[in-house]
Design a protein that fits this description.
about 375 residues; alpha+beta; seven-stranded antiparallel β-sheet; four-stranded antiparallel β-sheet; globular
């Protein structure tokens, strides 16, 4: 299978707390990468192979701001240059390992696996509420044996919820209905779906502390932000006008053509100091992610992404098809086969998400 992930894009490599003085090996976009943190506190990313015998540098040790291979002791500085080897007094000329650009913007460590010079003109999306004291956030991560676009397109659909997640929906919600709007920019797709006024699902009542019986306004939506990021939210509006927002920000990073890392940050603007609410939401979302992964892995094992994308499309697939088209344009541009589509202005290099509603673009 030919890879269908753009390389000129910042992807989540890890969460910040995963990168310590112990090197971390991870496969990202089909490349074996080692991530490590030096004594200065900075994160570094190398190709995970020593320049001598291709030994995995994830089995190394950090010495100050240098990485020491666990096989022959070849020692690399932060630029990837070998500066010492115990085997001989002089390091062979040109001995070095490939270095990948990284950015640490809590809670994520981002990596650029395309041509390094292209990274300077791009930034990862900003997600200000993840670190905002007015919001409460917790993290989770999982692995899916499916192509990363299957993950994106699954999240951009959600018409499957009454089948896959029936017990977690508000009582009386038997279908998700049509999108109320789909907003498209050069690189993003956002949708909104306004649902009937209904009582609360069990997880909503438990997390918010609201009376589950009366009818509430419900709104569900999502955004394909980049090939690396998806955001989904669910809003409840109480009779007094207070809006309770639960949002999930997914870092979606291809591991290979048929497997994906998912790094999730779940944020809410209510009960921000409640450990009980966090525990209830964590348990609920763990179940949701397990069911989602199971569905995607069954589809991937049976038909793969080629079979997935070859099926008959529904109206509910509108946002997913737009995202698929955006990725296709990005891939074609990387291959030198496409220009910017007419009628859509180039997107700013700097943009941020809104925790609900349309994507917010910044200049």
């Amino acid at each position: 299978m030919i890879s269908n992930y753009p390389k000129k894009c910042w992807y989540v490599a890890a969460t910040c707390d995963e990168i310590t003085e112990s090197p971390l090996g991870r496969r990202l976009l089909g490349k074996d990468v080692v991530l490590w943190r030096g004594v200065s506190g900075d994160v570094h990313a190398f190709e995970n192979r020593c320049a001598h015998r291709a030994f995995p540098l994830s089995h190394s040790r950090v010495d100050g701001d240098r990485l020491v291979c666990g096989y022959h002791g070849c020692t690399y500085d932060t630029a990837g240059k070998c500066v010492y080897t115990p085997a001989q007094p002089r390091v062979p000329t040109g001995m070095e390992v490939r270095v990948f650009p990284v950015l640490e913007e809590p809670p994520f460590v981002w990596i650029w696996l395309g041509q390094p010079f292209a990274a300077a003109g791009s930034q990862p999306p900003r997600m200000p509420w993840v670190n905002d004291p007015a919001w409460s956030t917790f993290a989770s991560a999982w692995h899916v044996k499916a192509n990363y676009l299957m993950v994106h397109e699954h999240y951009l659909d959600f018409s499957y919820a009454p089948v896959v997640h029936a017990r977690d929906l508000p009582p009386g919600l038997e279908s998700m209905g049509s999108f109320n709007d789909v907003e498209v920019s050069e690189t993003t797709v956002s949708y909104t779906r306004i649902l009937p006024e209904l009582p609360l699902a069990g997880w909503q009542a438990d997390a918010t502390g609201l009376d589950p019986g009366p009818p509430y306004k419900h709104r569900e939506g999502g955004t394909f932000v980049t090939p690396a990021i998806h955001r989904q939210y669910w809003e409840i509006e109480a009779p007094n006008g207070t809006v309770y927002t639960t949002t999930r920000t997914h870092g979606i990073t291809p591991e290979t053509e048929t497997s994906t890392h998912v790094f999730m940050q779940s944020s809410r603007n209510y009960a921000i100091d409640s450990n009980e609410a966090t525990g209830r939401l964590r348990s609920f979302l763990d179940g949701v992610s397990r069911r989602d992964a199971s569905i995607l892995e069954m589809a991937s094992e049976h038909s793969g992404y080629d079979g997935w994308r070859g099926g008959v499309e529904f109206q509910a697939d509108a946002a997913a098809l737009r995202a698929r088209r955006i990725v296709g344009v990005m891939l074609a541009k990387e291959a030198g086969r496409a220009e910017i589509r007419p009628g859509l202005a180039p997107n700013s290099r700097d943009y941020s998400l809104s925790p609900s509603g349309p994507l917010v673009l910044g200049g």
